[in-house]
Design brief:
Structural class: mainly beta
Radius of gyration: 25 Å
CATH class of the largest domain: Mainly Beta
Largest sheet: 9 strands, mixed
Distance between the termini: 93 Å
Number of strands: 18
Shape: elongated
Strand content: over 45%
CATH topology of the largest domain: Immunoglobulin-like
Order of helices and strands: HEEEEEEEEHEEEEEEEEHEE
Length: 238
């Protein structure tokens, strides 16, 4: 190989290596999980989910950090980066479905009330946010209901809030899925609602859903999703 060919080949290899390094540092390959140290820390998107359900003794706090947006690549924290909930540092985990995540599981009976999430990025900048977890309870309804308005009474809500109501025919899967306004703890399944169902078993779910932007995030932002659900199986008769 002559010197000109050797120099041309060397230049091509150097150029190719430079492109690879540039791509990995600037985050063009958004489909791949990446080290959090490779990106601008202001490009971290916070995705916080807190979930509880009546009958489940635990509340699950699941925190994820994404590159650029809520649809971005999963990020794995590296020291000095870390995340704490109420002063407890969370250890990272991952799965094929969710990618990297940080999870805390706490007993429901101990978790009601205010909580603080503290995220520290790789530049040791801190982002603190708070939330309140408040379960809801349903004042008991009869196991068998008639074709007339059914008033549901809930506790643990503000004077006017929203709740997702799902009522499903367990045999056909047909039903109602809507967001209702709860006024003074009350929401109604109307006679008209029930007219769409045949007599027999129905499955009722009431889910308090609260989604809001993080209050103290990076320039990219993030969201809080807090949910708590109730379930009942009832029988509809004429």
């Amino acid at each position: 190989m002559n010197q000109a060919s050797y120099m041309s080949r060397s230049f091509t290899l150097i150029l190719l290596a430079s492109i690879i390094v540039l791509t990995s540092c600037t985050g063009r390959n958004d489909a791949l999980p990446r080290s959090i140290k490779e990106i601008n820390q202001g490009d971290i998107y916070f995705d916080y989910k807190i979930t509880g359900e009546e009958g489940n003794k635990d509340v699950i706090v699941m925190l994820q950090y994404l590159y650029g947006s809520e649809n971005g690549s999963n990020l794995k924290l590296e020291k000095p980066g870390k995340v704490e909930v109420d002063g407890e540092e969370l250890k990272g985990d991952s799965s094929k479905i969710t990618g990297a995540f940080y999870e805390q599981i706490k007993p429901l009976e101990e978790f009601t009330g205010p909580h603080i999430i503290l995220f520290t990025d790789c530049n040791k900048m801190e982002y603190k946010d708070s939330f309140i977890f408040q379960p809801i309870t349903l004042i008991e309804i009869p196991g068998t209901i008639r074709r007339k308005d059914l008033m549901l009474e809930l506790e643990g809500l503000n004077p006017e809030e929203y709740i997702r109501l799902l009522l499903t025919d367990t045999s056909s899967g047909d039903g109602i899925n809507r967001v209702d306004t709860v006024s003074n703890g009350q929401v109604t399944i109307t006679k008209k609602d029930l007219s769409g169902f045949v007599n027999g078993p129905l499955h009722l779910e009431l889910i308090k859903e609260d989604e809001r932007p993080v209050k103290n995030g990076t320039k990219t932002g993030g969201k809080f999703s807090i949910s708590y659900g109730l379930k009942r199986d009832i029988i509809l008769e004429d």
